[in-house]
Amino acid sequence: MTILSLDAEKAFDRVNWKFLIAALHKFGFVEAFINWIKILNHNPNASVRTNKQTSNRFFLGRGTRHGCPLSPSLFAIFIEPLAAAIRQNESIKGIKTKHSHHKISLYADDILLFLSNLHSVNETATIINEFSSISDYSINWNKPVLLPLDSNAEQRLTIPVKTGNIKYLGINFSPKLSELVQLDHTPLPKNIKDDLTRWTNLPLSLMGKVATVKMKILPKVNYLFSMIPTQPPLKWFKILDSSISSFLWNNKPARISLKTLKSAKSCGGQTLPNFHNYFLANRLQYILKWVKNNPETNSWLDLEQALCGKINLSDLPFI
Fold first, then answer.
1. Which are the contacts of 146, defined by CB distance < 8 A and separation ≥ 6?
2. Model confidence over 186-245: pLDDT tens digits?
3. By three-state DSSP, how is residue 175 classified?
4. N or C terminus of the chain with fewer C-beta within 10 Å?
């Protein structure tokens, strides 16, 4: 069993318009919508501005427009034939469960493949190369990373690949569960402290700084809690609170305790995030989903149920 992470070359910039239009027709989009897409991509041109100097305009032969809210959806349609070809190829073996056969995970241009044998890796590479020849899509074959979940998984491959930890959607993964805290939790307090240090001298009131923590720090921490199941040590939370206290009071002694600031406004607080409570809330969220246990609508539940074997996920909280 292996997990293969692939890196696309300039993904949005390599969208072939003819292939995209053909995909839109194949997926059943109405002609009026397709005509609008054609109009938006008719003879586009651009120029480059450097040091107040603007270049001559040049023609753009492919790619979706950067900053356009429609571009991510168009790219998803463009890449879906590749995903469909991988799913439908019976020679490619992924993780088979009761409700599905998991082979590929796509988020924009980030590709993660779940493959059960080496032949599947080579077969997938063949399909990607065939897709690239007709769509202009391209994988940087110097950057794929193979995360082996068993020994000798990297041998006998037809593509150059390095093995080791992989990074997907900002989260580092390792075949060893014990390494996840070191890879993901340990660096975060230092990164947050560096950010807060840069913001310390900004002309912000106490309420403004609390709002900054809610808007800039809480999403980073909450995202990590929601993505991986590992529990950081209590010292990790204390380091985080210490950095936030220094930020709130400009590296001076605190005038109001963090415990009070974390209270509701009706109790004299400012609802400063309690990160340990957010961690517990995220753990409870998973337990609730285990109890409801609807793997037909949640693919990750389907995978976990398959890995648990005869043990039902809804029974785990009571074991």
1. 2, 3, 4, 5, 121, 153, 154, 157, 161, 162, 163
2. 999 999 999 999 998 889 999 999 999 999 999 999 999 988 878 888 999 999 999 999
3. coil
4. C
Domain count along the chain: 3
Q: Do both 73 and 195 map to the same domain? A: no
Residue 41, SS3? coil
| Residues 17 and 149 placed together within one structural domain of the fold | yes
In a domain, 175, yes or no: no
CA distance 57 to 312: 62
R_g of the chain, CA atoms, integer Å: 24
The pTM assigned to this predicted structure is: 0.77
Domain span holding position 215: 181-273
Are residues 290 and 198 part of one domain?
no
Which residue stretches of the chain are H helix?
Answer: 17-26, 31-40, 71-88, 118-135, 180, 187-199, 206-212, 218-227, 234-248, 258-261, 275-292, 299-308
**Are residues 18 and 114 part of one domain?**
yes
How many whole angstroms separate alpha carbon 246 and alpha carbon 236?
16
Least confident of 21-25, 102-106, 272-276: 102-106
Which residue type sits at 138?
A: S
Residues 92 and 110 in one domain: yes
Amino acid at 166: I
